[in-house]
Amino acid sequence: MSHSAGLKGLVVSRLRLSYLWVVALSVAATPVAMSAARVFAQTDVLPQYAAASRGLEYAHLSVVDGPWSIHIVRIDRGDNALEFVSALAQGTVYGLATVRRQVEALPKELGRPVAAVNADFFQIRPGPYQGDPTGMHVVEGELVSGPIGTGFWIDPAARPRIGAVYPRFEAAGPAGFHASFAFNQDRSDDKAVLYAPSMGPSTRTTGGVELVLAHSGQGPWLPLRAGLQYCARVTAVRHGGDSPIDADTLVLSLGPTLAADINVPAEGSIISVSMRTAPSLEGVRTAIGGGAILVKDGKAGTWGGRQPRHPRTVLGFNREHCYLVVVDGRQYGLSIGMSYPELAELMLGLGCTDAINLDGGGSSTLWLLGKVMNSPSDGRERAVANSLILVDTKTDTESSE
Predict the structure, then answer these.
(1) 398: Cβ contacts below 8 Å, ≥ 6 apart
(2) Which domains does the chain have, with CATH numbers?
């Protein structure tokens, strides 16, 4: 089946099957969650997938009683030629681009893009760090944003993982110098942040002391990779902030309050820089930050209080498939969005054992074979910080054999 024929043949089904999507919610569930429970119990919707590409299927669920408009891409985990990669808008931490533009900019040697969604939450307001992903981001093995909270990654054995990841980033040097640091983000007066070339041309900081670091000649160097330790030489000590970042240097920025309380290494000093995380991300080539873990080991999460509905982007998986899901929202007559409890039940209903919420709202975008399939709530595609892209690594010759 051709790609276009597969997409044109998509149908929406609302079949009544007694065993499907029976939502079990406690009596403490919010009115919003209970409303979803009734809808799913009454409609028992079943996705009718149509082949979109080898190892890739698409379904669109339209539930009138929400209403909900739900877009689902199901990926065969048994097809080893299908791989997840990630993209960073404009190639730097401070930068934004639509999912479509990020797909178009993907290096061709990574494979043919077949599906994509927006990824992490990010700094959306204009300013020096607009576009900074909130959590971790690994692009082709290079760490470009440090972990904060939860995320999704592909481990070295090619298995999908979700969970909390914690930074253990540390720098140490002579005269008792020691500093824990964050990575490629805004720096406060009492903290330290390490900046790499992936940040952009400069640190964009104000005040403080900044150590310009070059390779000492020992051990690995750039690009930075999670889990490794680096040996650096301080080539300059700059005051005032906004230090330039060259292609082969790092900058360790110390806030003014912190710098006043520690022994700042002098020019020529050798310092160690550790990029460890817990759990370890060593050897990981693709990772993105995320939000709430909706389903873990086959069990839905729990949330207290009233749960708002928004447009949502979700990634889930089980032993056989991975799922990219976008639920449209904030559009009267089309789709009202979903709460976390509703999303968790949706992903369980699809058969996921694990699922994580990604950035939503106007950012929610599902791209498939050259087309945005959902209806973004902004009325157009929003420029976002990063994206998760599924590529087909088989050549045209291999695919036709």
Answers:
(1) 81
(2) 54-164+281-401 (no CATH), 167-278 (2.60.120)
